[in-house]
Amino acid sequence: MSGDGGSGSKGRVTRPGQDPDHALVQAVLEGDATAYRGLVERYQGRIHSVIYGMVRNSEDARDLTQDAFIKAYKNLHRFRQHSSFYTWLCRIAMNVAIDHLRRQKVRRAELFEEGVATRETGGVISIAHRREDPARNLERKQLGQRIVAALEALPPEQQQIVILREIEGMSYKQIAEVCEIPEGTVMSRLYYARKKLQAALSDERE
Prior knowledge:
It is a single chain. With 206 residues, the chain is mainly alpha-helical. The chain has two domains: 85 residues, RNA polymerase sigma factor, region 2, helix turn helix motif (Rna Polymerase Sigma Factor, Chain: A, Orthogonal Bundle); 89 residues, Winged helix-like DNA-binding domain superfamily/Winged helix DNA-binding domain (Arc Repressor Mutant, subunit A, Orthogonal Bundle). It contains eight helices and two strands; from the N terminus they run H-H-H-H-E-E-H-H-H-H. Strands 1-2 form a two-stranded antiparallel ribbon. Helix 2 packs across helix 3, helix 2 packs across helix 4 and helix 7 packs across helix 8. It is elongated, with a radius of gyration of 19 Å.
């Protein structure tokens, strides 16, 4: 969906109080296809990160990001203007990634590209960047592998919530909008997903 810098959306004026995303969406729906480039440029990086967090393959993530934007473009007439464009787009991206994983049955080799995952207080996943001695590095690597295995064992609906919460940093409300489920369901799924991850870590320590 990329293109040259001559987008007709560059000089578009947003009315006071109008959401910039909604203005671009409206422009596309009114026939200005170049306006969509502004949305791609604004969210391409974030959508790529979300998808990469699911598929753990750079080439697949690039292709699926492209697919997500194409699918969103084709379904733009279904976007509800009172909603957040990003959460709507993210929902499409997550579904594209889940469909890909179901088709390909891709196994992730690691949770993040750099370092391995460790669990902080409350079950939050973070990245350990510090260089340690070989024994410590091996321990962290093994721990990361256990977490990856636990993530892969989660149902897709729990996987996507972990990704959105721990990697994308979304609020419960935003996740609920993306997944189209109540906030209580988001909290419940995240709770059980974290319990499984914590169990994997506990087993590793024993």
